[in-house]
Amino acid sequence: VQLQASGGGLVQAGGSLRLSCAASGGIFSIGDMGWYRQAPGKQRELVAAITSGGSTNYADSVKGRFTISRDNAKSTVALQMNSLKPEDTAVYYCNAYLFSAVVGLRNYWGQGTLVTVSS
Questions:
Q1: Of 72, 45, 47, residue with least CA distance to 57
Q2: Beta 9-12 vs 113-118: how paired, if at all?
Q3: pLDDT tens, residue by residue, 65-104
Q4: What is the phi/psi pair of residue 5, to 5°?
Q5: In whole angstroms, what separates CA 64 from the centre of its chain?
Q6: Which residues pair with 30 in a beta bridge?
Q7: What is the pLDDT of residue 30?
Q8: Burial annotation 18-51 (CB, 10 A radius, 16+ → b, else e)
Q9: Each residue's pLDDT tens digit, 93-104
Q10: How far apart are CA 97 and CA 105, in angstroms?
Q11: pLDDT band at 27; cut points 50, 70, 90
């Protein structure tokens, strides 16, 4: 069972990026999913979260600019990031509660993808 994130890169301020994260490995169901980020010298923080029912929650710093979505059929979660700012520069991690036959319900982290926003 694993989460695989993709979509990071270098973008100018004001630009957009889309992050994607796919769960795989004999998963029966997926619970809450989310994106976190960690900037150099700072603690990891929640960026956005989405429940299995589709309810969303955002950090105040990204409200109105970022949108989280999920596709349960494809076991994916995405983060659309618009109007990016240099302070959005960080390593972004996806997170999800995954239920599999082998280990039951556990919390998993993706490997992290770097987003760099130049001014």
A1: 47
A2: parallel
A3: 999 999 999 999 999 999 999 999 999 999 999 999 888 9
A4: -100, 155
A5: 16
A6: 98
A7: 92
A8: ebbbbbeeebeebebbbbbbeeeeeeeeebbbbe
A9: 999 999 998 889
A10: 7
A11: confident
